[in-house]
Amino acid sequence: xxxxxxxxxxxxxxxxxxxxxxxxxxxxxxxxxxxxxxxxxxxxxxxxxxxxxxxxxxxxxxxxxxxxxxxxxxxxxxxxxxxxxxxxxxxxxxxxxxxxxxxxxxxxxxxxxxxxxxxxxxxxxxxxxxxxxxxxxxxxxxxxxxxxxxxxxxxxxxxxxxxxxxxxxxxxxxxxxxxxxxxxxxxxxxxxxxxxxxxxxxxxxxxxxxxxxxxxxxxxxxxxxxxxxxxxxxxxxxxxxxxxxxxxxxxxxxx
Length: 255
Hints:
This protein is an alpha+beta fold. It has helices at 21-28, 55-68, 161-203, 210-225, and strands spanning 8-11, 43-46, 80-89, 93-102, 105-106, 110-113, 116-124, 133-134, 139-145, 154-158.
């Protein structure tokens, strides 16, 4: 089920001879995405990321749709965004490429993404030019992360470094609690399994005397009692046995 959000479909690799945009549009019908060619309201742009074909048309279609829907971002308040990609640069350290969704990002802002935080030291645009501010809708490369956050993490601005540490500590605690709860569920499931097996084993021993029960259980588990692991394990690898001889000196004190 699709969310109630506007969609623009960019059909990539249209520079290839075997490209078939019409087939893509027909396949989208199975996902309730009806393109304009089939009477719907979803725009489709045939592009080639390799050659740069129709990328400007895609940008113009996006801007036109935003103007029609009167989509406007809030340039004030705390910064919100999303991590598009992240990496570790040899000279810059942990670096993320992000899209700002709300607020205006400036140098010195304290950001939190996942379990990592940053004090913004440097910002660069898509051409590698240094930036002083980044407003909503702008892609920006952020330098200053303590660790590399994962792509797709939400970026939130906080008031101080102390607040950033509190947020991260809480997220780590919540993750540990979730893992602990999952471990408890697994343990309880194993305990229930063993309990059910024990009850099933005892069902046929209800009307027996103590000696009869012990005799029956002994016969049922006798093969386990006499099982011994192999002292020599066959292997295809060549092994060289080594015997180390040592002298041990015992000293006894006689009183």
